[in-house]
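Input record, target 12 of the design panel.
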């Protein structure tokens, strides 16, 4: 388990991470989501003891990283797939890592097999594609067979096949009971990978809830209505206490109604004698909702309330 409590990091006048508190549980994939510059990498680096915090703490199974005995057997991380020596082979790279960290050499073949690199184990890693480098990074993270794994933007720049493979690999690791924290700036990606989301914007917590709960709240749907007599329909809805918003012009002119069943809107139109040219439920764009949520400074003010509402609704337990 990873526990982050009141974690804060300041670089001069910039507050990169601002009083973050969250827990990452074993057995599921937890997505660490936020736009570029939100503070995800800085938080992960503090969890891994690569960066000191200005205040607060990050604990791995109750201890700071620096206090862990043989840390690679407890925590594995993939922060940057490009740090490998370009002329060293994948096997030599892993053997070097095993030797310098006092890990059994037999693990090298095991992890190469796990990530599907056995057939290219003797090839220079500098000639690897980004997807292969990511696999080698995963192999390195798994060398000590750790129970806790952190991956920073692991699918960035990968092709669809590579993304699919990494996604399933993360899920597999979690299903083995490991604690898996994966960062991304794409909600659509995390929605397909993570069971739980910790969402941050400008270093502050925006949401800490199940992925299903977050996507449901973020992508609120509405009913779209087109008619040659939109003003009459708006008036009839208003008389029934239902607010509508006019959108578009000419043939695209429509009313949007949120929070009212489609049948009720159809009935009101029928009773008012208004012909309809369209009556449809539209899904909100998840990515758009996420961008609005993380970009709006008003929302930052509500972050603690949102987090409190989430935990009091029992989503995390
Ligand atoms: N070493 C540093 N010195 C000064 N500012 C830094 C440093 N590292 C990060 N920052 C700043 O802290 C903020 C958070 O950066 P961070 O890299 O943690 O965000 P991120 O969510 O991981 O974004 P990205 O996906 O773009 O990497 C940014 O404003 C960044 O410019």
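The sequence produced for target 12 reads:
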């Amino acid at each position: 388990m990873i526990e982050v409590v009141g974690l804060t990091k300041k670089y001069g006048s910039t507050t990169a991470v601002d009083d973050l508190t969250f827990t990452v549980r074993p057995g599921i994939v937890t997505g660490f989501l936020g736009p570029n510059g939100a503070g995800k990498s800085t938080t992960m680096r503090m969890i891994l003891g690569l960066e000191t915090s200005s205040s607060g703490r990050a604990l791995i199974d109750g201890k700071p990283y620096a206090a862990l005995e043989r840390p690679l057997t407890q925590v594995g991380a993939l922060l940057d797939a490009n740090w490998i020596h370009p002329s060293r082979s994948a096997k030599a790279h892993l053997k070097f890592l095993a030797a310098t960290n006092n890990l059994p050499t037999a693990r090298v073949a095991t992890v190469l097999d796990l990530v599907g690199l056995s057939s290219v184990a003797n090839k220079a890693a500098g000639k690897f594609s980004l997807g292969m480098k990511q696999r080698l990074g995963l192999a390195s993270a798994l060398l000590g067979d750790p129970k806790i794994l952190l991956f920073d933007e692991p699918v960035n720049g990968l092709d669809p096949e590579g993304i699919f493979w990494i996604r399933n690999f993360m899920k597999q690791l979690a299903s083995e009971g490991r604690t898996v924290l994966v960062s991304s700036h794409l909600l659509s990606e995390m929605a397909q990978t993570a069971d739980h989301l910790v969402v941050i914007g400008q270093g502050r917590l925006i949401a800490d809830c199940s992925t299903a709960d977050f996507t449901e709240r973020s992508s609120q749907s509405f009913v779209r209505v087109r008619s040659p007599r939109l003003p009459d329909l708006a008036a009839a809805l208003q008389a029934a206490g239902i607010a509508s918003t006019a959108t578009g012009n000419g043939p695209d002119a429509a009313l949007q109604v949120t929070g009212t069943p489609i049948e009720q809107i159809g009935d009101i139109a029928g009773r008012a004698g208004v012909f309809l040219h369209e009556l449809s439920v539209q899904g909100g764009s998840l990515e758009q909702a996420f961008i609005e949520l993380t970009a709006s400074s008003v929302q930052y003010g509500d972050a603690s309330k949102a987090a409190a509402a989430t935990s009091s609704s029992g989503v995390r337990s």
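The chain has two domains: 2-74+146-217+290-312, 221-282.
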